[in-house]
Task: structure prediction
Amino acid sequence: MTKRIALCAVMLLAGLGVAQADSLDPIAVRQAGFSLQNGDFAYIRSVVKDKGDVKPLEGPAKAIAMWTKVIPTLFPKGTETGGNTRALPEIWSDPAGFQKIALAANDAATKLATDAKAGNAEEVAADAKLLGEQCGACHKAYRTK
Result:
């Protein structure tokens, strides 16, 4: 699963033309990563809504958990503008709050992966709700509408 995620990310980034001679564009990387996360989370939500088999959700939940660890590193100073970013200045003025939400999202995604592996549909539903709340809290505080 990890290889698939890495391959998809590389292909997406290459397709977006974000590779530069000596570095990657952090805005493009974070936008591509959020797009992948959104797809994984949409899949998780659809399985929960349809009361489907939750065991296959382990992989997408692990991918989200890996992504949430990286998120705070993708907002270096100097990336406040450009690239159609929707990031609010609060990311840079309140990095501790931003990192706290990313860590809480990581905890929720990690728990979701564990509960999915165990096949615990009720816990997965609760975990998905909590993960959605963490994502929403970050959007409310740190992203323009």
Notes: The radius of gyration is 16 Å. The chain has a mean pLDDT of 90. The chain has six helices and no strands.
